[in-house]
């Protein structure tokens, strides 16, 4: 039906929509075969002079006609997409009032393409989802305010050492004059999110790449090297493999985090990064992150399974973390609080950290491996209580709340 409407507007000289401001066109699943055909949009400028918002879904379109008053553009393409950065940029040159741009399905330019440079002075948000990493080159040709919110997602699995040069330059824009100060950086698996100081405090940069487990550093290292880490207050790391980032690489990153106050490690983030904190002063370098005040450990392995019952101090994660806390304490740079939530750790290990007085430990008292045992223990206790028995037996305590406070989420 959508084809017929636009064809009617295009070829019926008496048809027009001079007051139309918002147009949404969708090809239904039933009409999927026709969606692969080029869509006729050449009549839009003449017949819809007031168009402000345009939303196209499942429509094969390679370029747009000039739409000088457009403020919001959303195009969702599937894998038959023929829209390339060069043709999109050529269309955007005629829409200087654009405020929001959302494109899904962009594909790489043909070899030798020379895309034009486009200024979008009113842009507040841009989101590009692409089948090809090379399509990220579109950001090199766009000029927009440094306060704009920018997102890029590559949906295909990357391998080896992909060319991230355009995304590295995109990260570098946060160093430009007028850019808001970076406050939080989060890298969970292969998704990098950068939030800046407000108003409002919001995600200003989001880059999502499918690197595959064990290969996250191929993206994290070059992208983080271009970010203004010196102003970051919060750093969140998660779903990295133990060997993903070397000690030397962690030292380089952490040395730049001069204002860092809060470090969040979650989803099996490697505690090996604390090796960088320990090795840096041993090598004559300044202590990394000298203003670090609190650490959140969520769903991390602190005591490895084989060391849980007898030799917790021989567990590498616990050992390096304890050494890190001791070094900071003795260097008059103590970490004020450590929050431990749903981590693999024993009560004895927590008691040892508490007894050392290196920091204030706030633990939820939960050992993930004992979750099943807890319910059995509670059943036993209820049964004992029903017989009038007491419940003052020994053994490891099953914590139900935070021991010293509340985990910050």
Overview of the structural elements:
Residues 395-409 have a biased composition (Basic residues). Residues 366-384 have a biased composition (Acidic residues). Residues 364-409 are annotated as: Disordered. This is F-box domain-containing protein. There is one protein chain. The protein is α/β, with parallel strands linked by helices. The protein has two domains: 1-145; 233-409, no CATH class. The chain is built from eleven helices and 16 strands. It has helices at 2-11, 32-35, 44-47, 85-92, 165-172, 217-226, 247-255, 274-282, 316-330, 347-356, 371-386, and strands at 22-26, 53-57, 72-76, 100-106, 118-119, 125-130, 142-143, 149-157, 182-188, 191-196, 202-210, 234-238, 262-266, 294-298, 337-341, 360-363. The strands form two sheets. It has a 14-stranded mixed β-sheet, covered by helices on one side. Strand 13, helix 8 (274-282) and strand 14 form a beta-alpha-beta unit. The longest helix is centred in the last third of the chain and has 16 residues, at 371-386. It is elongated and about 80 Å long. The two termini are 49 Å apart. Mean pLDDT is 81; it is low at 30-34 and 386-409.
């Amino acid at each position: 039906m959508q084809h017929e409407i636009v064809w009617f507007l295009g070829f019926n000289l008496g048809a027009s929509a001079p007051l139309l401001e918002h147009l949404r066109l969708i090809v239904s699943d039933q009409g999927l075969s026709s969606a692969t055909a080029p869509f006729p949009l050449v009549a839009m400028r003449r017949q819809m002079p007031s168009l402000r918002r345009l939303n196209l879904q499942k429509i094969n379109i390679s370029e747009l006609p000039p739409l000088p008053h457009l403020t919001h553009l959303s195009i969702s393409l599937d894998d038959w997409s023929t829209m390339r950065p060069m043709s999109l940029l050529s269309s955007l040159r005629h829409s200087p009032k654009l405020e929001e741009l959302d494109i899904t399905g962009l594909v790489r330019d043909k070899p030798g393409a020379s895309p034009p440079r486009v200024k979008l002075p009113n842009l507040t948000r841009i989101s590009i989802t692409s089948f090809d990493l090379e399509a990220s080159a579109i950001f090199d040709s766009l000029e927009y305010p440094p306060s704009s919110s920018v997102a890029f997602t590559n949906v295909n699995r990357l391998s080896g050492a992909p060319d991230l040069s355009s995304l590295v330059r995109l990260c570098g824009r946060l160093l430009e004059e007028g850019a808001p100060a970076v406050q939080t950086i989060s890298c969970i698996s292969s998704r990098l999110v950068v939030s800046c100081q407000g108003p409002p405090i919001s995600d200003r940069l989001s880059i999502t790449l499918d690197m595959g487990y064990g290969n996250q550093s191929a993206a994290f290292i070059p992208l983080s090297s271009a970010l203004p880490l010196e102003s970051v207050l919060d750093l969140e790391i998660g779903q990295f493999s133990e060997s993903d980032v070397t000690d030397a690489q962690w030292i380089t990153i952490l040395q730049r985090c001069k204002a860092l106050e809060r470090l969040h490690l979650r989803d099996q983030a490697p505690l090996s990064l604390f090796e960088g904190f320990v090795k840096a002063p041993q090598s004559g370098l300044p202590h990394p992150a000298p203003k670090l005040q609190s650490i959140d450990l969520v769903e991390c392995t602190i005591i490895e399974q084989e060391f849980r019952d007898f030799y917790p101090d021989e567990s590498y994660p616990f050992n390096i973390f304890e050494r890190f806390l001791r070094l900071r304490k003795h260097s008059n740079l103590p970490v004020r609080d450590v929050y431990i939530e749903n981590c693999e750790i024993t009560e004895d290990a927590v008691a040892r950290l508490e007894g050392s007085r290196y920091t204030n430990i706030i633990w939820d008292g939960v050992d993930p491996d004992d979750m099943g045992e807890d319910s059995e223990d509670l059943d036993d206790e209820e049964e004992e209580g029903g017989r009038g028995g007491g419940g003052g037996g020994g053994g490891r305590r099953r914590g139900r709340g935070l021991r010293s406070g509340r985990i910050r989420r």
